[in-house]
Amino acid sequence: MSKNLKSGKLDMHVLKGLLERYSIVDPQIIIGPKIGEDATVIDLGMGSNHYWVVTSDPITFTTEEIGYYGVVVNVNDIATRGAKPKWFLATLLFPEEETNLDLIEEVFHQIHQACQRFGVSFVGGHTEITSGIGRTILSGHMIGEVKKDRLVTTSGARAGDLLLLVKGICIEGTSILAREREAELLAKGLPLPLIDKAKNFILDPGIDILRPALVACDAVSIHSMHDPTEGGLVNGIVEMAMASEKEIEVDFEKVHIYEESQILCQEYGLDPLGVIASGALLLAISPDDLSAIQKVFKESSIPLQVIGQVKEGPAKVLTTEGEEMKPFSRDEILKIFK
């Protein structure tokens, strides 16, 4: 008998085996289920010069602003294809013991506001009061469009490419820590202004990556694009390496970690490199395009750092000292939900 599994994403090597065994082959599927690929790409045929980009992502770590989170994480998956998000659906499961109409109204309001912000239409889904769960769960589904000649994949990283990081890491995790553990942090003596600033990380620097993704695609040829989420930066780069079947060397000293993130992670003994990182964006580009993309990002006031290089070799992530970085088995943030 197999042992019970812990909460968190399924081990990526286990998932890889499942996807390879049970995936469905359809000639209209340009990109199907694969480790590291953020969204499926479908050719609608009929002479269209666009692909449909389709994704699904849940919110399970936090309930505050769950409607906003739910829209944004799905927008991000669409954006990593170089696509524009168009239509959003949500499956909403509310706990039987703690739900009233005011709560449901608030979640719908959050979804509506987020959709308006990103130019997305909220087109359907499912809503129910569910027995046996202790907190609200949102599972989002998003459809977007991309011109065929603008499609970007995670698997496109090439040997010799530079690895770039947009903004910094642990943005979503910082907000979750501040929102879910505010009373504890105050009791530990952390100042309220720091906690409030951390809670607002969902908006500033922001967990969305649509604008930087589109800015990058307009500026240069992006070979690979991926947003690190659960499992943090390390797992995001491992996923990129696996998808591209390349070795990626990373100088982790160049990775930007916000001061608020460092403080909150230290309070709970979390490694920021393994904390859910929505808001960051990984890009692989030719070194010849570096000056052009740096110029555009500086003009757009979007932080950008070169943190590594793509090399030929088996799929793995190495530090500059040659140490292999293994993926986190569970997101570090789960330690606060024991």
Write the layout of secondary structure elements.
Elements lengths: L11 H11 L6 E3 L8 E4 L6 E10 L6 H14 L4 E12 L5 H18 L2 E10 L6 E11 L14 E5 L4 H10 L1 H6 L4 H8 L10 H10 L4 E3 L5 H13 L2 E4 L8 H10 L12 E5 L4 H10 L4 E8 L4 E4 L19
Parallel strand pairs: 4-5, 9-12
Antiparallel strand pairs: 1-2, 2-3, 3-6, 4-6, 7-10, 7-11, 8-10, 9-11
Question: Can I get a quick summary?
Answer:
The protein is 33% helix and 23% strand. It has 338 residues and is α+β, with helices and mostly antiparallel strands.
Strand content: 15-25%
How many H/I helical runs? 10
Largest beta-sheet characterization: 6 strands, mixed
For the terminal residues, how far apart are their CA atoms?
25 Å
Query: How many whole angstroms does the radius of gyration measure?
Result: 20 Å
Helix content: 25-40%
Uncertain runs are none
Structure classification = alpha+beta
Secondary-structure element pattern, one letter each = HEEEHEHEEEHHHHEHEHEHEE
Name of the CATH first level of the largest domain: Alpha Beta
What is the averaged pLDDT score? 94
Q: Architecture of the largest domain, CATH level 2?
A: Alpha-Beta Complex
- Domain module tally: 2
CATH superfamily of the largest domain: PurM-like C-terminal domain
